[in-house]
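ABD12 lipase
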Amino acid sequence: HPTESGFTTDVLALYDWAKARSGNSSILFWGHSLGTGIATNVARKLQEERGVQVDAIVLESSYTNIREAAAHIPITKIYRQFPGFSYLILDSLALGNMFFRNDENVKVLACPLLILHAEDDAVLPVHLGRKLFETARSAYKDKTKVKFITFPEKLGLGHDYISFNPELPALVK
């Protein structure tokens, strides 16, 4: 069964593999949706346990933590009104050791952080990305290292298509 700890360990091994082969090239983490939690977990682990700071992190369609994300995803909308929703759905994530605490992780990171979110994201509402940005911005000593870019609804990028935006390479650079 996939676990948060297992994902984090896997990406840490991938980082070690890439770092050993990259020479002096920069390595950045790019997480999308659930992967944003994995990216910040690994970056925090590297920083706290090895004293290594990743070169940068890009979070695409992010959230604050998995509990808050699950409370806002469309599939849970019809269940939110029922008694026991918090216990049966949201608390079950914690019982399975699934937290993906982007909000806690960004409070201790110092590397450049870019958060990308489409205003028409129907899976993870843009306010979760904005809230994460505000948390990071208030915690970072160097506020210039934290950026938040939203993509207007008219572009139709939704949850999955920010990477299709032709301006993305220039924005990330």
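thats it. Residues 162 and 168 are 8 Å apart (CA to CA). The radius of gyration is 16 Å. bye
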